[in-house]
Every structure is written in structure tokens, then in C-alpha cells.
Amino acid sequence: MKNLLSRRTVALLIVFMLVANLIAFDGFAYGDATVSADLNNFISNLTVDGITEENGAFTVIPGAEYGISMVFQENLNYQFDNDRVLTYQMPQGLNAVELPEQNFTVTITDDEGAFTIEDNTYRVEDGKLYVQFSKNDLAKFNRLAAVANLNFEVNINAEFDNSYTEIDFGNSVIKSFNYDLTKKLEIEKFAHYHKNFGKVNYSLVVKCTAI
Fold it and tell me: Which residue of 47, 99, 114, 132 has the fewest C-beta atoms within 10 A of its own C-beta?
């Protein structure tokens, strides 16, 4: 009887330890995860605007400027260091266009429900992406800091220089590229300032010609 109780006690202790160390997307921080400001540990997907992957590869024109969508997601191994400026080093083969500070919104769901945080910022400078979460609403920021499955998306412009057929973006996100050397892409950008509205409208003229 004593041995049976001991075995049950040990089994209960093991179950308790497993439950205490469970890592789940329930809005609480992962116990074994590393807090990091390096977004290369968090990238989960990348797409090229207007181009679909065919046979596992994007086909692009070298030197042409493309819109790039990048998604970053907290995971089992890493959690965002929410108080710091988060940075992402662009990989070789991808030449990111300098981008002044932009705002973006994060949508989050926790045990209290869904909410959004606006006025988060990102910019691209010297081949690096810089991201910072807004603390304008501290109550919402604290809820953001408490969740363990935060993700967000940013949009940048970049060129591919035809030097790599595979580009490693970090966190096991590797994309293949084919380069179309038979076409030349020219893009002209025009700006028109609307004084009455205090806004600037931009127009793009894209020309694609055979070489």
C-alpha cells in the first residue's frame, strides 16, 4: 500500500511539473523562451507583392523594385523584447530601399478579448529594419507584453541583385528565386500635393520592356 501511494505521489508530481511548464498560446509568456530584440529570430513568412511562388520559387527582374511583406511571430524559442527597439538585418541578395518612419497597427487577442494598438513604428535604414511598439496607451501595452503569440506584418520595398538563387531570411525561412534577364523594368514616381487636404498623392508608372 505504501509503495502504491509513493508511485501515485510521484506520478502526481510529474503531472504537476509538466503542467507548470506547459508552453501554450494562452496569453502568458513562455517559461523557457528567450527574450530577444533580434527580429531574425522571429520572421515567419515573406511574400513578394504581385508575384506568386511557382515550383517553389519567385521569378523576379534583377534591379527592379518590389513590395515585400514580412511577417514576424513570437514562437516557442523566442519572445519579443517589447521595451526595446526591435531590429532585423536584411540578408545578402536583398537590397532594401530606405524608408522613413511609418506607423502600423497591431491586433491582439488575449483572455480579455481582442484589441488594437496603433502608432507602432518601423523604418528601414542602412539595410536594417527598426520596429518599436507604442506605449501611448500603457494599459494596452502591458496586455501586449503579456501575450505569448504576438505577430505583426510590415511592408517594405526592395530589389534583388541576382547574386543568390536562395536567400535565407532567418528562422528557417528560406526562399528560392529565379531571375528574368530578358526584361527591363522601369518605374517612374510622381507626387502631387493637395494643398486643400494637406496630403501628397503618389502615382507610379511601370514600364516593362524586352531586352
Answer: 114
Supply the CATH classification number for the domain 26-181: 2.60.40.1280
Cβ neighbours around 65 below 10 Å, total: 17
**Domain regions of the chain by residue span:** 26-181
Q: Give the tens place of pLDDT for each residue, 157-182.
A: 999 988 999 999 999 999 999 999 88
Taking the CB of residue 160, how many other CB atoms lie within 10 A of it? 22
What does the DSSP 8-state code read for residue 141? H
Beta bridge partners of 113: 110
The residue ranges of the chain whose pLDDT is under 70 are 1-31, 183-211
DSSP for residue 143: H
Q: Judge residue 77's burial from the number of C-beta atoms within 10 Å of its C-beta, 0-12 exposed, 13-18 middle, 19 or more buried.
A: middle
